[in-house]
Amino acid sequence: MPELRSLLTDAGFSEVRTYVASGNVVLSSSDSPDAVAGEAERLIAERFGFDVEVIVRTRDELAEVVARNPLAEVAVDPKRYQVSFLESEAAAEVLERLDLPALEPERLVSIGRELYTWHPEGIGRSKLWSKLTSAGGLGARGTARNWNTVTTLLAMADGS
């Protein structure tokens, strides 16, 4: 993560901070989110030699994700509550194929480019997670973070 911070800082991004060793970055830029994602993908490929999909949300978008919290009443363990940040909205027909009633007590709420998922038995035992990540998946690039990480990234974006 120190190398990633250095790479992004040297490229002209400011206030670059990382959180845990999974590629979570909070930074400041006047560029559009798409431009930031494209530049970060290019820099990472050049420096580290592998391709990675970068998904970017602005501070305000992340705040909206946290404020919505559509599963707050059932998602009582933040480690088992995830938000998948997608590059584009998941198509309705893709979500319908998941057959959510058959996956209860797991839950999924799709709002815009985010999927909120509750896995009461954990990700390792999750039939829903298996379907979301299977071949064909959602038809959109994305990355998932647990609720603890999502709220921590927002706090970092707010300067905490």
Overview of this structure, please?
The protein is an alpha+beta fold. It folds into two domains: 2-48, Alpha-Beta Plaits, CATH 3.30.70; 59-157, no CATH class. It is 36% helix and 20% strand. The chain has six helices and six strands. β4 (107-111) and β5 form a beta hairpin. The model has no long low-confidence stretch (mean pLDDT 92).
Mean pLDDT, to the nearest integer, reads: 92
**Which sequence of strands runs across the widest sheet?**
4-5-3-6
Radius of gyration: 16 Å
Structural class of the helix and strand makeup? alpha+beta
Counted by DSSP, the helix tally is 6
Summary keywords:
single chain; 160 residues; alpha+beta; Alpha-Beta Plaits; 4-stranded antiparallel beta sheet; two-stranded antiparallel ribbon; 6 strands; 20% strand
